[in-house]
Q: What sequence folds into this?
């Protein structure tokens, strides 16, 4: 199986992409990698390391898409960019199962839809980041921000796609699904979430009903479902609050001589905490609902983050997430057709 | 000036209400308090302390509204409840400037609207909690969850009312206002936030444009504006993430003998951190847009939280938040009338 890596567009490109890629390659003999981007720069970087050259390919792409560009314009006009080249390969090579990029989220989503295409029946692909919890497991959030204006049908599909994803990632057969709302009671929510609640209740998934964002990170849920606006607010509030608490902790320690002394014995524990909180450990966030695996890694991804994203892609490929989403969308269409027929006959 | 305290409906009622109230009373000679609730229980609690009895009144109300009841039904039928009695007094007594309750948020909002009434021109009252930031100052969030389905006009009013509130609370003349969105660029957002952005830009406030929830607690904003669904998600995610980080920190310390030893020197610093993060320190959250001051304290409020809420009410009363909101609503209506006239003449 081949994974295509957009070697540019991240803060540590192409170094992190190449070192993370080669680390993964050394551990996974059944995978090979294709790097897209400036050939000379990639070669220069690759030459620093020992690796199995028979499983590494470079496809030259002199341009880079930046975060500031309009996603649609960039995907349509920058045909020689590392990202568009990566999409072209994944689209055309049947052995290429996945595309990984640290570039602009909007451009990756646009490229995924325009170049690779949506799975039949999928109304909107969803961004599915994984967040740390109190327990030693992550919780997936759909939609993390790909769709800021949603309809209830979208949320239903986000849930089904998220379940397929978490089944592959966590090896939990029936991921516990919570609908993000303003209270846990069935009737709580806004117009959108209430309509989604009614539809989610009818699905053959482990639906735990409404949940409050206060419980998002307790570990009692495997999948959180929200519209992309509220989902993005949740995602970014987690990041902002974690930074605020760490900064307050640091200030509290620095404000006390005794605490400063005590902290000398805690370096390992603080490092552990930082590791626990590190989104890099979870790799990237996939766009679910696309005909192939597309994963967006954080712009600031380092070697470890790229390697984690590749392990994640491997799990998604081995767990056939794309195939399972196809099957779920097929079943959903059949269910809806059956319901429509029943309604017609009534 | 009189403040009416619903002495029941909280987890620590009536003890916290009474001790917090008496602490406040001892420091503020120009205020008197009216407690509503079971007279015998209140008296029994009051008798434990020394206080200026000429400034304390009890109004008997044998019933309590619970969190499980339908807000509208409870307010309409439980006329002998501590909450409804409190609203009745604030409505009818010109000296009663404010009502404080730890009871059901929904019932307080319903009671505030039905019993006291909205300020003329206010479309929807808003819940305005204050959150801790990295710096030693809080940030106010409107709407914290009173209005889960919003229109752009509501957000405009939330911003104006929040500015009046933060002017009184923080003594900042021009509170910096951020619109919660999915990116900082002007064009980012959903349909609702984009329309609100265009309207907020036209207001004579210190509008800093779109902000990301990641920066909610950096201290660079004084007021965050969002619809009540996204706002509530933000509010509760802050709480959930802080709990998660603290729990992870504890686990990291407990997992290391050296860190456990080090933590012995950090007790004061950890206590400081806990204090910094404590929502009790900020008192309660007012409903802005009501003809009198109405503050909802957390259900779990202790003595310190009730006292802080009373200090907050004092600031709101001295800063004439209600009067200023009235003036802002008046100006807004004049502005809208002028704009309509211009449009008609065009």
A:
């Amino acid at each position: 199986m081949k994974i295509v890596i957009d070697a540019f567009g991240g803060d540590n490109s192409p170094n992190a992409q190449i070192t993370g890629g080669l680390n993964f390659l050394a551990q996974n003999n059944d995978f090979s990698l294709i790097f897209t981007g400036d050939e000379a720069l990639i070669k220069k970087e690759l030459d620093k390391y020992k690796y199995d050259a028979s499983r590494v390919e470079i496809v030259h792409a002199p341009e880079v898409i930046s975060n500031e560009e309009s996603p649609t314009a960039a995907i349509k006009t920058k045909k020689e960019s590392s990202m568009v080249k990566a999409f072209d390969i994944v689209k055309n090579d049947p052995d290429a199962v996945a595309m990984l990029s640290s570039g602009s989220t909007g451009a990756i989503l646009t490229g995924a839809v325009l170049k690779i295409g949506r799975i039949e029946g999928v109304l909107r692909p969803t961004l599915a980041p994984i967040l740390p919890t109190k327990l030693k497991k992550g919780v997936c959030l759909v939609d993390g921000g790909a769709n800021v204006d949603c309809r209830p049908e979208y949320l239903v599909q986000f849930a089904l796609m998220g379940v397929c994803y978490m089944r592959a990632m966590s090896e939990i057969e029936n991921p516990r699904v919570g609908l993000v709302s303003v209270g846990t009671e069935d009737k709580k929510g806004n117009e959108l979430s209430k309509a989604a609640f009614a539809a989610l209740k009818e699905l053959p998934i482990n639906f735990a009903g409404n949940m409050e964002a206060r419980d998002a990170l307790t570990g009692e849920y495997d999948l959180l479902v929200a519209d992309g606006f509220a989902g993005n607010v949740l995602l970014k509030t987690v990041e902002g609050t974690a930074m605020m608490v760490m900064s307050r902790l640091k200030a509290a320690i620095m404000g006390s001589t005794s605490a400063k002394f005590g902290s000398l014995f805690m370096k390992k524990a603080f490092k552990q905490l930082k590791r626990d909180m590190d989104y890099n450990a979870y790799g990237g966030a996939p766009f679910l609902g696309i005909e192939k695996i597309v994963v967006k890694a954080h712009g600031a991804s380092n070697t470890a983050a790229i390697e984690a994203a590749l392990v994640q892609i491997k799990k998604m490929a081995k767990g056939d997430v794309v195939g399972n989403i196809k099957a779920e969308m097929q079943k959903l269409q059949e269910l809806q057709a059956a319901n429509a027929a029943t309604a017609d006959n009534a």
About this structure: Chain B has a mean pLDDT of 94. The first helix of chain B runs from residue 15 to 27. The longest strand of chain B covers residues 206-212.
